[in-house]
Amino acid sequence: MTENTVARTVTTHVVGAGDDAITYDVRGDLAAASPDRPALFLFAGPMDATGFELLADQFDDRPIVTYDPRGAGRNPVGTADISPEQHADDLHRVIQALGVGPVDAFGSSGGAVNLLALLAAHPDDVRIAVVHEPPLAEHLPDRDAVLAVVADMKRTYAEQGDGAAMAKFIPFVMLDGLVPDDYLDQPAPDPAMFGMSSVDDGTRTNPLLRNMPAIIEYRVDVEALRARGDRLVIAAGVESGETMAARGARTTAAAIGVPVTDFPSHHAGFTDQPGYPGDPAGFAARLREVLD
């Protein structure tokens, strides 16, 4: 614990039942939310609530909400594909269950796409939306190549399982620049390079791969997003370079006609991971700036 973080009571709740059960956490007292300091909902996809512990602890001026997306964390598992619209409905149900009116929302990666879907379906749920590095292919110059790679990854998952598919996913999301047309001509990477097994265990419950290709293919409602004015912030990490998610942020912002807001660090800069340190304190400071 540093002087910039705060420890508060965390309560855990579930909205819905069966396959539609969604687990969420509230830090602090929801009664402390106000129109100019609403509850702040932090989420990603498929990263669950544990990925936001460092960022959430940086805020002491409002209640903080985190959750586990459908198919991830403490929620029921499954094998069917999951769409941004389903995630948007889940987010809406959580916000309604909070009962404190519109929230401020920060969505990152797949969560950023799900936040855009929420804004399309339930615009009144959110006061200020911060959309951080949505991996959207729609406006990319290499859109067709990106979608071909994702389709190949999905086939690999169906035919060979988790290790083989994730071994293709990791270098793809780390690629700094346009996806070349001959990208798929290269040999498939060995899962052992990433500490994973090539043995197919038969499961197909990986939430990341269940979210594709729907997350990548999602098409935003440009006119509806333009209408939000400065209540919509499209963000990218200053260290993210030309990775696909950062390019997705920039091309989506250009289509809407808004500037890209720089955030510290990289795609996961709000947390710290082994060998991939972020800047949670700097990230929180920047998030406060755009929300205020």
How would you describe this structure to a colleague?
The protein has 292 residues and is of the alpha/beta class. It folds into two domains: 10-139 and 217-291, Rossmann fold (3-Layer(aba) Sandwich), CATH 3.40.50.1820; 143-210, no CATH class. The chain is 34% helix and 15% strand. The chain has ten helices and eight strands. Helix 2 packs across helix 3 (110-121) and helix 4 runs antiparallel to helix 5 (162-174).
List the helices and strands and how they pair.
Layout: E1 10-15, E2 22-27, E3 40-43, H1 53-56, E4 64-67, H2 84-98, E5 103-108, H3 110-121, E6 126-132, H4 143-160, H5 162-174, H6 207-210, H7 214-217, H8 222-226, E7 232-237, H9 244-256, E8 260-263, H10 280-291
Parallel strand pairs: 3-4, 3-5, 5-6, 6-7, 7-8
Antiparallel strand pairs: 1-2, 2-4
Helix pairs in contact: 2-3, 4-5
Helix amount: 25-40%
Describe the main β-sheet briefly.
Answer: 8 strands, mixed
Number of helices: 10
Q: What pattern of helices and strands is seen along the backbone? A: EEEHEHEHEHHHHHEHEH
Q: Looking at this structure, what is the CATH superfamily of the largest domain? A: Alpha/Beta hydrolase fold, catalytic domain
Strand arrangement across the biggest beta sheet = 1-2-4-3-5-6-7-8
CATH topology title of the largest domain = Rossmann fold
Structural class based on helices, strands and sheet pairing: alpha/beta
Termini gap: 25 Å
General shape = globular
Q: Beta-strand level of the residues, as a percent range?
A: 5-15%
Number of domains: 2
CATH hierarchy, class of the largest domain: Alpha Beta
